[in-house]
Design goal:
The complex is a heterodimer of chains A (450) and B (457). With 450 residues, chain A is an alpha/beta fold. Chain A is built from 17 helices and 14 strands. The two termini of chain A are 17 Å apart. Classes of the chains: A alpha/beta (450), B alpha/beta (457). The interface between A and B is large, with 83 and 78 residues.
Chain lengths: 450, 457
C-alpha cells in the first residue's frame, strides 16, 4: 500500500484519542500546499447570506466566484427566489487597471431596477481590495438613489479563513437588524440563527416551535426575508443552530438589544429534543409551552422510532467517519450515528475551536482520530486504516469514499434532503442504511476476496 | 488570448462561462503524475475542485498556495515555495502545474522567478517538472485557461529537449476540452490507423476510472511526460478548434520551434467535420479509413435518413464553449435542425465567422450568434425565438424548465445527471449518440404533448 505521510506542520492538528495527551492545534490559516478542504473568506460570507431570497447578491470581482456559487445549494424559499440567481460585475483586465467602481455602480443599479429587491449585498472578492475600489462609497450612493439597504460584505478571499467570512456576513446582517418595526412581535418569540432551510429544514423546525406556541420572527438566513431580519431585534431569544457561523451575530445582538442566546443543534433525536426543551425552559413562565413540547416530542419520536430501531439492527457495529464544516454539527452526528448503532472512527471539521475539539475528544471512544482542517490524503489514510463503512461529508469528500468502496452521506449545503428534525433523522438513517448496505460494494476491490 | 472584444460595460447574470484557472486545472489533470496548483486564495482551488467533482465524480486534488493578507502585501513567493515543497512531500508528483489567479496576477507576482529560485534552492531533490501558466481570471474564459495550460506544458518541457529525429508515423493530438469518453475514442481511432500518437491532455482515465484497491494519491493515467518530451519529433500536430486555429497554441509552438506542421481543424462533431479529421489521418498513415469507422459512418448516415423527419425544421439553441458551439452548429446544419441561437460567454470575437464557415445555410437574422452572453440573456432570446430544443450544459436547465423544452446535455458542466464523463460528442460514434439523443428528445416531447398518447411512432 502506498504510504501516506502526514506533513510535519500538520501533525499537531491530528489526534488519536487515548494515544497521547490531548493538545490539538486549530484556528490556523491553512498550510500552503496542503490541499485543504476549506474554502475562503468569500465562501464563508456567501454561505451565510445566500438564502436571503428577496435580496440581490452581487459578487464584485472576476467571474469565477459568482459562477461557482450559482444555485448550488438546497436552500429553499417559500416565495421570491432571487438568491438562486448569480450576479457578477465580471471584472475584466480593463477594470482591473482603471478600477471597477463605475462598473459596480452600473451593474448594481441595473439589477435593482430589474429585480426590485428589498436589499442588496455586495461581496468584495480578492482583487477588489488590491485595485483599491471604494466599494462603500459606491454603495452609499446607490443606497441613497434607490432607497433600499445596500450592504458591503468584506469578503476578500485571502483576508483570513472561512470563519472571517462568517463574521463579515454577520456584520452585514447586523446593519439590517433594528431597521424594522418590531412592535408587533409577541412575548414568546425567537429568532433562529444559522439555519439555512436546506431541503426545507427551517420549515420543519418552525413548525415544531409553532406547535409549542412559539413565534419565529426571523430565520437567519433560511427562507430569509429582509423585512424579517430588520425586525428580528424584537425577539426574546436567539437560538443558534450553526454556532460556528452565527454566534458572532448572537453576541452582537445580545450586547445591543439584550437578547440572550442559546446554542442548539437540530440533528438527531437527542439534540433536536434538547433544542425544543431548552426554548420551552427559557419561556418557563408559561407552563403550557413545556406541556405542548412534551406532547409533541413524544408524538414525533414515536412516529420515527420503530423504523430507526430496525435500521439500527442492520447497521449495528458498522463504522462511520465524519468530516464537516463546523464542529457543532459533528457533535450531533456522533450522537446520531451512535443512535443507529454505528461507531465513530474519524471525526473532524474545517473550522472547529480548541473548546470544540476538547468536547469531541470526550465524546469519542479511544482510537478515534480527530482532525482539524484535514486534506484528502489524511482523510483517505484514516478511513482506510480505520476500516470505515461510511463517510459523512460534502461533495469534496464523496469521491474519496467512493473510490475506496465506502458508503457516503452528504451532510453539506448542496444536499436536497432535509436531515434536521425528527423526520430529518429518519431521512438521515435511511440514507446511511441505503448507502452502507448497497449491493454495489460487493464489487469494490477491498471486498473482493481473491 | 486577449482580444479587443474582451470587455463589457455591465456585469453578468448567470454566467455562461467559467474562469481560466478551472480550465488550466482540468488540462493538468490529463498529465500523468501531475497535480494542479493554484497560486492564490484557498477558495479558488476549493470551488474549482467542487465544480469539477460534481461533473466528473472523481477525486480532484488541486493544491493552493493559500494567500493570507501578509502574502497579498509582501508577495506570494514564500507561500508558493512552501506550497510546492509540501505538495511534493505529500504527492511526489512528476509535474506540478502552477496556474496563477486574479489575485496573484494583480499583485504582480513574478512566478517564473519564484519557480527558478525554488528549483535552485528548495526542491529537496524531487526534481518535479514545474509548469507555469498565467491564468488571470479577468482575462478570457476556462477555454483559454485550458489551451494556455496545454501550450505552457509543451513550451516549458520541450524548451530543454527539443527535436531529436522526425518520426514519420508519430502524430500529436490536442483535442481541446472534450469528455474522457471522447478522448478514449480518439485514442482508439489513432491506434486503428497504426499511428504512434501523443494526446495532450489525456484525462480519459484520471477523470473516469474504476474503484481502487489502494489509495492513489494521483490517479493513474494521463499523458506521460516522457511522451510529451517527444512531441517535437512528430511529423504532424492536429489541434481541434476552429477558434483555436486563430490563437496561439501548443501546436503552433511546435510548428514554429521544431518545424512540426500543425493542422488546425474544427472539433470533429458530425459527418463533415469528422471527415476532415479522418482524411488527415488517411494522409498521414497512408491507408484508408479502417472498415470499422466506415461502418460507423455508414450507419450514422443511415440513421440521419431514418430520423430526418423527426428533426426537420426544428429550431435549436446551442450554448457553451465556443469550440463545441461551432461543432454542434455544423452538425445540426447537416441534419436539418436550425441553430437559431449560437451563444457563448466567451468573447473571442471569432464565433460568427467560424459558424459561417461550417454552416452553409447561415443567414442572419435566422441564426443569431451571441458572444459574451449570460443565461439571463439566453432566456430572453428563448422567449423571443421559441426554440424546440436546447443543446448545452446543465446550466441551461432553468430555461428548459421554464420554457418546457427538452435539454440535451452536452459539454461541461453536467451537474444534474450521472455520466458527464461519458457523453460522446466526437467522431461518427459521437455524432450517432448525439443524433439519437436529439431525435429521441424531440420524439419524446411530441409524445408527451400529444393528447392521443401514441405508443407507435
Amino acid at each position: 500500500m502506498t504510504a501516506i505521510h502526514i506533513l510535519k506542520d500538520r501533525e499537531n492538528q491530528i489526534h488519536e484519542t487515548g494515544k497521547a495527551p490531548f493538545n490539538m492545534a486549530c484556528d490556523k490559516h491553512s498550510l500552503s500546499g496542503s490541499v485543504s478542504q476549506r474554502a475562503c473568506v468569500f465562501c464563508g460570507s456567501r454561505v451565510v447570506l445566500y438564502p436571503i431570497a428577496d435580496a440581490v447578491h452581487l459578487v464584485h470581482g472576476p467571474i469565477g466566484c459568482a459562477a461557482y456559487t450559482w444555485d448550488i445549494r438546497g436552500a429553499l424559499s417559500s416565495g421570491p427566489e432571487l438568491h438562486r440567481l448569480s450576479f457578477s460585475t465580471d471584472l475584466r483586465e480593463k477594470d482591473v487597471i482603471f478600477g471597477g467602481e463605475e462598473k459596480l455602480y452600473r451593474t448594481l443599479t441595473a439589477l435593482i431596477d430589474t429585480y426590485s429587491p428589498k436589499a442588496a449585498f455586495v461581496y468584495s472578492t480578492c482583487i477588489v481590495g488590491i485595485i483599491g475600489d471604494d466599494v462603500e462609497a459606491v454603495l452609499r450612493r446607490v443606497q441613497k438613489e434607490k432607497n433600499i439597504p445596500v450592504l458591503a460584505v468584506h469578503s476578500e478571499g485571502f483576508k483570513g479563513t472561512k470563519k472571517d467570512g462568517y463574521r463579515a456576513a454577520c456584520e452585514a446582517l447586523f446593519k439590517l437588524i433594528g431597521k424594522g418595526d418590531a412592535s408587533a412581535v409577541g412575548k414568546y418569540a425567537i429568532n433562529i440563527l444559522g439555519e439555512f432551510n436546506i431541503g426545507g429544514e427551517a420549515w420543519i423546525i418552525k413548525n415544531y416551535y409553532r406547535k409549542m406556541g412559539i413565534d419565529v420572527v426571523s430565520v437567519m438566513t433560511g427562507d430569509g426575508r429582509v423585512e424579517e431580519v430588520m425586525k428580528s431585534h424584537g425577539a426574546k431569544l436567539n437560538v443558534v443552530q450553526c454556532s460556528g457561523s452565527m454566534t458572532h451575530l448572537a453576541k452582537m445582538m445580545e450586547e445591543k438589544y439584550g437578547i440572550p442566546y442559546i446554542r442548539v443543534s437540530y440533528f438527531g433525536i437527542e439534540d433536536m429534543s434538547k433544542a425544543l426543551y431548552d426554548v420551552a425552559e427559557f419561556f418557563s413562565d408559561n407552563s403550557h409551552i413545556l406541556e405542548k413540547t412534551k406532547t409533541m416530542v413524544k408524538e414525533e419520536v414515536e412516529a420515527v422510532y420503530p423504523e430507526l430501531l430496525s435500521i439500527r439492527k442492520a447497521l449495528s457495529g458498522k463504522k462511520g467517519a465524519i468530516y464537516v464544516g463546523g464542529a457543532f454539527k459533528a457533535f450531533s452526528l456522533i450522537k446520531a450515528l451512535k443512535m443507529i448503532g454505528m461507531d465513530v472512527v474519524l471525526v473532524g471539521s474545517q473550522t472547529g475551536s480548541e473548546e470544540d475539539y476538547a468536547i469531541l475528544k470526550d465524546m469519542c471512544d479511544d482510537g478515534t482520530v480527530i482532525v482539524d482542517d484535514a486534506n484528502p490524503l489524511e482523510l483517505s489514510k484514516y478511513i482506510i486504516e480505520k476500516k470505515a463503512d461510511l463517510f459523512i461529508g460534502g461533495v469534496k469528500e464523496r469521491p474519496i469514499a467512493y473510490k475506496m468502496g465506502i458508503g457516503f452521506c452528504d451532510h453539506n449545503h448542496e444536499r436536497k434532503t432535509p436531515l434536521a428534525g425528527y423526520e430529518g433523522m429518519l431521512n438521515f438513517a435511511r440514507e446511511v442504511y441505503y448507502t452502507v448496505t448497497s449491493p454495489v460494494w460487493q464489487f469494490a476491490p477491498r471486498n473482493v476476496v481473491n | 488570448m486577449k482580444t479587443n472584444s474582451d470587455s463589457n460595460e455591465i456585469g453578468i447574470k448567470n454566467a455562461c462561462k467559467l474562469c481560466t484557472p478551472l480550465g488550466a486545472s482540468l488540462a493538468f489533470k490529463g498529465i500523468k503524475g501531475a497535480i494542479p496548483f493554484l497560486h492564490g486564495s484557498q477558495g479558488c482551488a476549493t470551488y474549482i475542485r467542487r465544480y469539477l467533482i460534481s461533473h466528473y465524480k472523481e477525486p480532484m486534488d488541486i493544491a493552493s498556495s493559500n494567500f493570507s493578507e501578509e502574502t497579498a502585501v509582501f508577495g506570494g513567493g514564500a507561500n508558493l515555495k512552501l506550497g510546492l515543497s509540501n505538495i511534493t512531500k505529500q504527492y511526489e508528483p512528476v509535474l506540478i502545474g502552477v496556474a496563477t489567479t486574479c489575485l496573484s496576477e494583480t499583485i504582480g507576482d513574478d512566478v517564473p522567478m519564484f519557480l527558478d529560485e525554488y528549483k535552485k534552492y528548495d526542491d529537496g531533490g524531487q526534481k518535479s517538472h514545474l509548469v507555469h501558466v498565467s491564468t488571470a481570471s479577468y482575462r478570457g474564459t476556462h477555454r483559454n485557461g485550458y489551451n494556455d495550460a496545454v501550450k505552457a506544458t509543451v513550451a516549458s518541457l520541450l524548451n530543454k529537449v527539443g527535436k531529436t529525429v522526425t518520426d514519420e508515423r508519430q502524430v500529436n493530438l490536442f483535442p481541446g476540452m472534450v469528455s474522457p469518453k471522447d478522448i478514449r475514442y480518439l485514442k482508439e481511432i489513432l491506434s486503428d490507423f497504426n499511428l504512434r500518437f501523443i494526446v495532450l491532455p489525456d484525462y480519459s482515465e484520471t477523470l473516469d476510472g474504476g474503484l481502487w484497491s489502494e489509495y492513489q494519491k494521483i490517479p493513474d493515467g494521463g499523458t506521460d511526460v516522457s511522451d510529451i518530451l517527444k512531441m517535437g519529433n512528430s511529423s504532424l500536430s492536429i489541434e481541434f478548434g476552429r477558434i483555436l486555429a486563430n490563437e496561439d497554441s501548443a501546436g503552433k509552438f511546435l510548428e514554429s520551434t521544431f518545424d512540426v506542421p500543425c493542422k488546425s481543424m474544427g472539433l470533429p462533431v458530425g459527418v463533415k467535420e469528422t471527415d476532415i479529421f479522418f482524411k488527415s489521418l488517411e494522409g498521414l498513415a497512408g491507408m484508408d479509413t479502417p472498415e470499422k469507422y466506415q461502418g460507423e459512418r455508414a450507419r450514422l448516415i443511415d440513421s440521419y435518413v431514418d430520423g430526418h423527419k423527426y428533426v426537420a425544421g426544428k429550431k435549436a439553441f446551442v450554448f457553451g464553449d465556443e469550440e463545441l458551439v461551432v461543432g454542434l452548429a455544423s452538425f445540426l446544419s447537416e441534419i436539418g435542425i436550425k441553430p437559431v441561437l449560437c451563444a457563448t460567454g466567451g468573447q473571442s470575437g471569432l464565433l460568427k465567422k467560424k459558424i459561417m464557415e461550417v454552416n452553409p445555410l447561415f443567414s442572419e437574422p435566422d441564426c443569431i450568434v451571441s458572444e459574451g452572453i449570460d443565461f439571463v440573456g439566453i432566456m430572453d432570446f428563448a422567449k423571443m425565438l421559441k426554440p424546440d430544443i436546447l443543446l448545452g450544459s446543465s446550466k441551461g436547465y432553468h430555461i428548459a424548465r421554464e420554457m418546457e423544452l427538452p435539454l440535451v446535455r452536452v459539454g461541461f458542466p453536467i451537474h444534474d445527471r450521472v455520466g458527464g464523463s461519458r457523453v460522446s460528442h466526437l467522431g461518427y460514434r459521437g455524432a450517432q449518440e448525439l443524433f439519437d439523443r436529439i431525435a429521441n428528445a424531440l420524439i419524446e416531447t411530441k409524445q408527451a404533448s400529444s393528447d392521443v398518447g401514441y405508443s407507435y411512432i
